[in-house]
Amino acid sequence: MIVLWASPLPRDVVLEIYPVAGITCVIVAILVAFPISWRLQRERNRLAKTVHDLESAHIELDRRARTDPLTGMLNRGAFMSDVDESLLKRIGGAMLMIDADNFKIVNDTFGHSAGDEALRLVAETVIAGVRIGDICGRVGGEEFLVFVQATDTLSVVAIAERILAGVFNLNFEPEDGCRHQLSVSIGVAINSADQNAIAMMSIADRKMYEAKRGGRNQIAYSYGDPRASRVRLA
C-alpha cells in the first residue's frame, strides 16, 4: 500500500493507492481533481457572496434615493412617481395635502431637534391614519402628501379627520413638563383617474391654504371641481 498526502488538502487527510490495474488510475484522477473542485467551490461561494452584497447595496441605495431620511416616508419624487403609476392603472383616488400649523414657532422656541421630533410624530400619525395601499410622502419641510385609493367623499374625509384628530391629540413635550399643541391643516382633492399627480397636488395645495385661512386645524376639500369647497372643523 502507498500512502500519499496531497496539498492543499488538510494534513490529516490521506489517500490510499493500491497498485492494482485500473484502481490506481481512478484514485490518481481523484487525487488530481479533488483540489481543483474544492478551489472552484470556494470561488463559487465567494462570488455568490459578492453578488449578494452588491444586490443588498443596490436595494439600500434605491431605498435611500426614495425615502425621506427624517420620517422614513417616501420623498417627493418617489411619491409623485408612485401616484402617477397608480393613476396610469386607472386607479381613482384623492390627494391629501397636510401642513403642520405654526411650525416655525416650534423651531424658533424649542430648537430644530424638537422640530424634527414633532415632524416624526406627525409622520407617524399620518401613516397610522391611512389604509394599506394608500401612499404617503413628505414633500417639504412640514408638508406631507397622502394618496388615498378611494373616491367616495365619506371614506376620504374620514381618513383626513382621523389624521387631523390624531395630530391634535399628540402629547408633544419639547421640554420636560412643557406640552406644546400640534395641529395640521389639510387640503383634499377628490377626483377620478383623469388627472396626474401634479394636477391633483395643485388642487389639494389650494385647499390646504383655504383651511389655513379658515383658522387652521381643519380640512378643506373639493369634489373634483377645484372651485367647489367644503370646510370641516376639527
TrEMBL record:
NCBIfam families: GGDEF. Its EC number is 2.7.7.65. This is diguanylate cyclase. It comes from Hyphomonas oceanitis SCH89. Residues 91-224 form the GGDEF domain. PANTHER family: DIGUANYLATE CYCLASE DGCM-RELATED, REGULATORY COMPONENTS OF SENSORY TRANSDUCTION SYSTEM. The chain crosses the membrane at residues 17-38. The lineage of its organism: Bacteria, Pseudomonadati, Pseudomonadota, Alphaproteobacteria, Hyphomonadales. One of its GO terms (molecular function) is diguanylate cyclase activity. Gene3D superfamilies: 3.30.70.270. It catalyses: 2 GTP = 3',3'-c-di-GMP + 2 diphosphate. Keywords: Membrane, Transmembrane, Transmembrane helix.
